[in-house]
Amino acid sequence: MKLRFTKMHGAGNDFVVLDATRAPIDLSPAQYRFLADRRFGIGADQILIVEPGDAARGTDFTYRIMNADGGEVEQCGNGARCFARFVHDTGLTSKDVIRVQTQKAVIEPHLQADGRVTVDMGAPFLVPAEVPFDGTGLTPRLENGGELWPIELANHPVEVAVVSMGNPHAVMRVDSTEHAPVDELGPQIEGHRRFPRRVNAGFMEVVNRGHIRLRVYERGSGETLACGSGACAAVVAGIRLGWLDEAVDVDMPGGRLTIRWAGPGTPVLMTGPAVKVFDGEIDVPAL
Ligand SMILES: N[C@@H](CCC[C@H](N)C(=O)O)C(=O)O
């Protein structure tokens, strides 16, 4: 089967974007893994599938997200910005504010005059069971309005804040992202038994109250150059724990996002780049 695609990235978190607005696209997990494969396929951290919206629910589009391991997930912040740039630049919509249904929530990307995109990511889920995180038998350490949960890794007790942006995140504070043991601890946190749907693992260095550095070991994709929902989760955690102010620049290996959050019950606003790399066509084998 031949498939047309657009390769995009948001701060180096890269995507294969597929237009399923005219005809449905339903590939197997192995076919999504093939598209994401950097040697045998196109190469991407995630595959984004753009589908028609639902007028009755007031949405312009639906978009689905597959990790590089072929599994479908609930949310993708950098993907949301690339999705908005894609539907606008391909003429699928002329709107600058777009309402899109993801698996867990309706989010609202706004195209800015300077080419960046701001996404209203909705309010974070802060109740551990909603993340989901199983804190049975654990006592969190409280700092201001936030909790730090002690979890055991092989030879390494760590404390994490747990936040859902529609998808699950565990955020750990480190002295330096440059020296953080992301390769060693990332996979252990991702598959930790306390996170029944697995989890994205963020390593956050607080530079000052308006600036952090962040590396994220993503569930189903490994460490990426940037994670939009991870940046939102880290800032939410840092604000609740009293470490950060309401507007924070987040520097990740692939670039900077700016996150704003006014507190529980209010939406997280994420601003950053969304860039098209190239268009192409690929033969997808039956897998
Ligand atoms: N890169 C994304 C997050 C993609 C999904 C994530 N790996 C998960 O499994 O939840 C982002 O920019 O948010």
Short structural summary:
With 287 residues, the chain is mainly β.
List keywords for this structure.
287 residues, mainly beta, Diaminopimelate Epimerase, Chain A, domain 1, 2 domains, 19-stranded mixed β-sheet, 19 strands, binds the ligand N[C@@H](CCC[C@H](N)C(=O)O)C(=O)O, isomerase, cytoplasm, EC 5.1.1.7
Q: What order do the helices and strands come in, and which of them pair?
A:
Layout: E1 2-10, E2 13-19, H1 29-36, E3 46-52, E4 61-67, E5 72-73, H2 77-89, E6 100-101, E7 106-111, E8 117-120, E9 141-143, E10 146-153, E11 156-164, E12 168-173, H3 182-190, E13 200-208, E14 211-218, E15 222-224, H4 228-240, E16 247-252, E17 255-261, E18 268-272, E19 275-283
Parallel strand pairs: 2-3, 4-6, 12-13, 14-16
Antiparallel strand pairs: 1-2, 1-19, 3-4, 4-5, 6-7, 7-8, 8-18, 9-10, 10-11, 11-12, 13-14, 14-15, 16-17, 17-18
The structure holds the ligand N[C@@H](CCC[C@H](N)C(=O)O)C(=O)O.
